[in-house]
Amino acid sequence: MLRIIIGFIALFTIISCSSEKNKKTRLSEEEMIELLVDMHKTDALVTRAVNRGEIEEEEVIEYYKGMLKKHNISREEFDSVIDINSHDFKNFEKIYNEVLMRLQKQEDTILLRK
Questions:
Q1: What is the pTM of this model?
Q2: Cα(82)–Cα(39) distance, rounded to whole angstroms?
Q3: What is the DSSP string of 14-69?
Q4: pLDDT digit of tens for each residue in the chain (114 aa)?
């Protein structure tokens, strides 16, 4: 009986560890920048749409799910990546400066078209 219990524990540990390896805990700097740019654009889109009554607040989560799916990352992985990166303040600040520059560039492009 003890061997069976130890076997199940070992199997469970192996399965847990292998599924953890598949989770993203790091993104390249470029992937992180693209993800954050899209996150901010999604924020702007859903805030505007909710304020105008175009979508219900209950629908907001679907927009974020779609954005995360585009980047092939789960909500849990996103939270983990943000947590890990936020501990390296200088690098996170560098990433966010690039995010802000790209968002500004996109806004400028849109304004020039008008």
A1: 0.74
A2: 12
A3: HHHHHHHHHS-----HHHHHHHHHHHHHHHHHHHHHHHTTSS-GGGHHHHHHHHHH
A4: 445 444 445 444 554 444 444 456 678 999 999 999 999 999 999 999 999 999 988 899 999 999 999 999 999 999 999 898 889 989 999 999 999 999 999 999 999 987
**Is 76 buried (19+), middle (13-18) or exposed (0-12) by CB count in 10 A?**
exposed
Q: Which of 47, 110, 39 is nearest to 79 (CA)?
A: 39
CA angle 96, 32, 66 (to 5 degrees): 115
The pair of three-digit structure tokens given for residue 66, joined into one six-digit string: 């779609």
Token pair listed for 11: 């199997």
